[in-house]
Write a structure and sequence with these properties.
14% of the residues lie in helices and 32% in strands. The chain is globular, with a radius of gyration of 15 Å. The chain has helices spanning 51-57, 78-90, and strands at 16-19, 26-27, 30-31, 41-43, 46-48, 61-65, 70-74, 105-111, 114-117, 120-122, 130-133, 136-137.
Length: 138
C-alpha cells in the first residue's frame, strides 16, 4: 500500500470521474469509519484511500507541505499519539458494517505529490497516481 521512492508519477493529468466503494475498514480488530467527505475509490485497478486517514489508523503522524506537494509520515510524539488514539476512538464504527460510502460518483484530480515514510522517500508504483479529493490526498 505504501510503495517505494520520492516523486509520484501521475499517469493522468486531467481530473477523472470515479465511483466510490463501500468497505469495512478494520485496524487492530476494530472497525474505523472514514470521515465525512472522504471515500475509497478504484481507478485503473488500484484502490485509493485517504493517506491521512490510513496513517492515523496506523497511529502515524502526517504532515502535508502544500508548497512542495510532499506528504511526510512519521512516528508521533507521545502527546500526538494521545490525540491520534482519541481520533480513532471517535471514528469507531460498527463491526460488520461498511466504513465508507459506496456508489457515489466523485471527481479525483491527479497531483504530482512526493512521499516520505519514516525518513525514506518513496515513489508510487509505475502506472499509479496520487489524487486530491475534497482537499485530501489519496
Amino acid at each position: 500500500m505504501l510503495p517505494a521512492v520520492a516523486n509520484a508519477q501521475t499517469t493522468t493529468t486531467k481530473p477523472v470521474k470515479v465511483q466510490t466503494s463501500a468497505f469495512e475498514l478494520v485496524f487492530d480488530g476494530k472497525t474505523v469509519n472514514l470521515p465525512d467527505g472522504q471515500f475509497i475509490f478504484v481507478s485503473q485497478g488500484t484502490s485509493y484511500v485517504p493517506i491521512r486517514f490510513i496513517s492515523y489508523a496506523l497511529q502515524k503522524k502526517v504532515v502535508w507541505d502544500n508548497k512542495t506537494k510532499k506528504v511526510t509520515v512519521t512516528e508521533p510524539s507521545a502527546s500526538e499519539l494521545t490525540v491520534l488514539r482519541e481520533y480513532l476512538m471517535n471514528a469507531a464504527g460498527t463491526q460488520g458494517k461498511q466504513s465508507s460510502v459506496g456508489g457515489k460518483t466523485i471527481t479525483a484530480s491527479p497531483v504530482a505529490a512526493s512521499f516520505v515514510f519514516d525518513g525514506v522517500a518513496r515513489n508510487l508504483p509505475a502506472g499509479q497516481s496520487a489524487f486530491i479529493v475534497n482537499n485530501s490526498i489519496y
